[in-house]
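Closing statement on the zinc ion sub-project.
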Amino acid sequence: MAKVTTTIKQVLNYQAEHGAWFAANQALFNRVTAFYFGVIQAHEKVLDLSKKDALTALEKLTHTTQSNPTPVMPLEDILEDIPAMFRRAAINAALGSARSFYSHLTKWRKRKGKAEAKGKKFHERPPVPPRTWNKSTTLYAGMWKERANNNIVIKVWTGTCWSWIKVRITGRELPSDGEMGSPSLIRHGNQWWLHTPVERHFKSPGTIEKQVATNAQTKICAVDLNINENIAVCTIQTVEGTILATKFIHGGRRISGFRKKQLGRIARNRRKTGIIGENEQDNVQLWNKIRHVDEHIAHFVSARIVQFAKTHEATILVFEHLGNLKPTKGKYSKRSNDKRAYWMKGRIFNYCKYKAYNAGILTSRVNPRNTSRECVRCHSLVARYETGKPAEGYTYGAPLVACALCGMRGNADRNASLVIGQRLSVRYQKSQEKPSTPLARERVSKDAGVVVSQDAQSAKRNHLFLS
Ligand SMILES: [Zn+2]
């Protein structure tokens, strides 16, 4: 079984004064966490214990009970009557931070030892323990009750006492098919949210290698990401090479145009205001606008890619490695635009990866070398050219391809997408020496009326493949 955790984020509606209580509650949580971090620093050995034993040991060191009347470092010094579950959440938060800090420290010491053993100077500064704490409060069972779709009762420190309050919840409902974890109280600006992790278990898909090597009917969804009009071109093919569907996700030109316009505005503003101070963020609103649109597009495109893969029952999603960002020439707006388009590709990949995994689809990447230049049928180099121009040479970014050797003609991005999918199959079939897909077979599979999901415009392009 594989498991996947999603976080359900819900907005809380509460009386104005409760906002101050949440803040006081969080401040106390951080004081207690910092306190326990200190206790761990004084007793580093607890980190060798399991999570459960470490918790017990830390409670013994700090918590006053009848059988433990004089703990070494009493938590009471901070506040009396801290609920046990509040304390435990803070201890676990402190343990998490301490484990991370000490593992960094150990690695640093190792690097230092290595350098000194070689007689080299070592200038790297050691990691420092957190100086400020900004943890969100995790509400363990006992700190909340009566959770319904629209409200929850939680126990918070108001600054003067512990109080149960009822708050309304809005936004996404919790899915019913998952296992709910402990919710956290999170502050976004002035608004408090409730984040709840939900764990789901599903039958684990076999590894990519196993799927490809053992089942020739395994469906692969390959994606070619672009910075031109076709943001993403997705194709479905089986491991043995039958092409089943194509989808073009358009809109690249509009996004690029929008972004370029905003970047141009920023450049003009900068010229007006002169040099910007270090660490000073300029044109905040324009940047936010660009960021929001980029984020929205990445989510939108990735959701559509995964939906397409799901519709056609693909179990593997494959992209090409991004390669390095090649510096481009031109105006500030052009250069920044290219850079953001490159980042966008990375973001679409990441979002696809987790969205696909939620649907039981695994994601992989293949070598990007010549994916746009290779013919999907016979692997010789293709000609790439503009519409209405002769089919020769290689015009970077042109929409059409033609193969002089086997006669394949079609959309350049679709060809690249198919090559990407094919590369994945080939990777796990090396021993079997895969023959190239014959022209006739593809024709048959298409004429057989296999569903081709795409809009009219791309359908038109798609016909070029058959001409
Ligand atoms: Zn060819």
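The CA atoms of residues 409 and 466 lie 7 Å apart. With this model delivered, the sub-project is considered complete and its resources will be redirected to Aim 3.
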